[in-house]
Design brief:
- The chain is mainly alpha-helical and 329 residues long.
- Helix 5 runs parallel beside helix 12.
- The relative contact order is 0.14.
Length: 329
């Protein structure tokens, strides 16, 4: 299978998955109890007003027709109108996307790089203090919920040592004097939310990479590499880590969706202006179009991330390509 055929197949699967998620979420939202016309018109609206709202928004149409209309609009980039914010959903989502991507991207980068490094360090010294310290850190990370870590960080770095800001994305009292000062201000506000979100996942990647690295370091090809007199650093990073990183990539693909769920809690704790706070407001107001828009965006990110991981798998382990060729021939 050529690289182009491989990527084309993954794109087709990704598109079908996104459509399936969209259909399922649409049905789920419309099966939920409650009348959206009542949400829009208000509790005190009379029957005539409610009927007019249902006609205006198409709620009086059959469910299949509503679903077909919604899919047609999404295909043309129209995610609908927010009931609560009275603004296009696409505009609301795109305004919040950069903040969430910055938070989630920073957290997952730190979690994967630092967690894998700690796991490799622990596997290389399985009976030393390094392994014991990393194991304790991993257990604490596993046991601590994301929101709990955020609250503890707020208590430490807001009450006792006010080093980092704990509210928002920028200091509204001091407008930036240049692009650099603005970027530094955002990074200053980003530290605590990123650490809160990354800590839990760092522990998972640390434990996973340690276990797989221990297994890989006892493999025959590692003993063969050492018997050839290769430097230990080359044996670990070229021959060991290359195979040990594959399970980490698999878990990363599965956890992208969980990261967005964790970001909702972190954004609520730190008042971070991302999709999480938007989703929280939409849930409280039963703003179905906004929730569907956020779910669609999250599904697209998860599917695209898994596509990238599939490509990385093929680059790291060429046997996947030959295996696919054998299956398709």
């Amino acid at each position: 299978m050529s690289a182009i055929s491989f990527i084309a197949g993954r794109l087709a699967n990704a598109l079908s998955l996104i459509v399936a998620v969209l259909l399922f979420s649409f049905l789920l939202m419309h099966l939920a109890p409650g009348d959206p016309a009542l949400v829009i018109a208000g509790e005190s609206a009379d029957a005539t007003t409610l009927q007019e709202v249902r006609r205006l928004y198409g709620f009086d149409q059959p469910l299949l027709q509503q679903m077909t209309t919604y899919l047609w609009r999404v295909a043309h980039g129209d995610l609908g109108q927010s009931y609560f914010f009275n603004a296009p959903v696409a505009q609301l989502v795109m305004e919040r996307v950069p903040a969430t991507l910055l938070l989630v991207g920073s957290a997952i980068t730190i979690a994967v790089l630092l967690g894998t490094s700690l796991g490799v360090a622990a596997a290389c010294r399985p009976r030393g203090l390094t392994n014991a310290g990393i194991t304790v850190l991993s257990v604490v990370g596993f046991a601590a919920p994301v929101f709990w870590t955020g609250i503890v960080l707020v208590q430490i770095f807001a009450s006792h040592w006010p080093v980092f800001p704990v509210n928002g994305m920028r200091d509204v009292t001091r407008p930036p004097t240049s692009a650099l000062s603005g970027a530094l201000d955002v990074l200053h506000h980003l530290v605590l939310p990123t650490v809160s979100l990354a800590f839990f996942y760092l522990a998972q990647y640390s434990r996973l990479s340690r276990a797989t690295m221990l297994e890989v370091l006892n493999a025959d090809y590692i003993r063969t590499a050492r018997s050839k007199g290769l430097p230990e650093r080359l044996v670990i990073f070229r021959h060991g880590l290359r195979n040990a990183i594959l399970p980490v990539l698999t878990v990363l693909g599965l956890q992208v969706g969980q990261l967005f769920a964790g970001a909702v809690l972190v954004e609520a704790v730190f008042n971070w202006p991302g999709l999480g706070t938007l989703a929280f407001d939409a849930i409280l107001q039963r703003d179905t179009p906004v929730l569907l828009g956020i779910l669609l965006f999250s599904a697209v990110i998860v599917v695209l991330t898994n596509m990238v991981i599939d490509v990385l798998y093929r680059l790291i382990d060429p046997r996947m390509g030959s295996g696919m060729k054998g299956k398709t021939s």
